[in-house]
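Write out structure tokens for Fatty-acyl-CoA synthase.
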Amino acid sequence: MTDFHTGLGKNAANHQPLTPIDFIIRSAQVYPDKTAIIYDDLEHNNLTQTWQQTYDRCRQLADGLRKLGIDKNDTVAVMMPNTPAMVECAFGVPMSGGVLCTLNTRLDINALSFCLQHSEAKVLILDSEFAEHAEMIDETFPNLIVIHATDAALDIERFGSMSYEELIASSDSLDNWEKPTDEWDAIALNYTSGTTGKPKGVVYHHRGATLNAVSNILDWDMPKHPMYLWTLPLFHCNGWCFPWTIAERAGVNVCLRKIDADLILQLIAKHKVTHYCSAPVVHNMIAGGKPEYKEAINHEVKGWVAGAPPSETMLAAMEAMGFHISHVYGLTEVYGPVTVCAEQEEWDALDVAARAQKKSRQGVTSHLMTGFELFKQGTTEPVAADGEEMGELALRGNMVMKGYLKSRKATEEAFADGWFRTGDLGVKYPDGYIKIMDRLKDIIISGGENISSIEVENVLYKMPEVQSCAVVAAPHDKWGEVPVAFIEIHAGSTLQRDNVMEHCKQHLAGFKVPKYIIFAEIPKTSTGKVQKFELRQAAKSLAHETPKVMASAK
């Protein structure tokens, strides 16, 4: 046997920690004058910044934070919309040695307090838009250094220790920063939505952030210098790692403070946006934008959708606009997207309905993810690849979190048997593609039969009047549980309960047809995820009502 180990160890010459910080260094060196950031709201802001300028500002941010006392593994929290400062924080904070904690901009005061306390944040960069929290933060966390991130679009009275620009200006060195000494070092802390209890702190490492950023490029065949529009919240899984992806490709970050369909369409046309990501609700908003703004777009636009499968209606509308939509899947615990519905050439010959059925699947593992499997519940035995047998989706690889902050038990449970168990149920098809059928907690058991809420929702989405929908269980004296459909229709649309029932009967077995149809606004998180826990609470009252009373349309 040949000895391939003795005298062949790791050293500084042949082994360096992976970190996405290297991406901005390279772009600044190779493409210093290429545009890195555009902030154009067509009204108040019109900023353009090169990669050299952005790299310099990130180094200034790192130095400024160090002067405030930030050291290795100190948490720097940020609560901002998708502004240039958020892009800079993706690099400047880890360059300071700190760990970036991006906070959900829709957190209520209790959840915000929990995250600040649990993360032990030493600095909070707070945007003007969230100035209402400043007084509470000052009273509750007197030792927390608050930085006021201002914006020309907002006229807010000054708060905090200094402004973000003053923090940048406080730097007197471009060399007071560092890269990780170990790629297992934490780069970011992301809190789960906390819809079923207190949020959990998901810890990312430099290695995973680097690999996910590169995997995004491979999965999307992303060329150099893409024009990327920030329709996806940068606080959500660090924007699915796309701040680092765009830096690696020396692309352009087109920043966006708010989600507005007409503004999005105007920016896509004006700046020739090539790529964007979002939940289905945003894609639907874009598809419903003003015709004159849609007609002004004369180039191909690529979009990723996650959170729910793309519907036939949405795909048809997007294709008519020249948009190409791909379905990806992921969770906070895996840095964002880690599977992709890799499209096959023969799908192009299918009609929209058949193509939508193919593209609705979660697909196959992304390029740099190691394992993606469906196991029979409670085992490590894979389900049959027959499109019928349901199992729990599990993942493994370098793009899985370090674990949950301050929760060894939850971390050990999540990694049982050497796999990360997602809690999602699905089936595998003969071609190896996986399709999620439901969450473990969302399966409806009616008369002993399992009903996939996602299957019923997919049928409802075939109706063009449906903008958003969610199906949950309501208790029932005879059947144990029955499906309930909450439906939000497009503005100006009219839809009656009888129309919905008839449509469902044409596409579903009788026991799967919703017994209650409720027309209402669907509660969602800031990332577009339906908050089913709220709907389950509403559905519990239906056990004491009749379908006739509860199913009236608005």
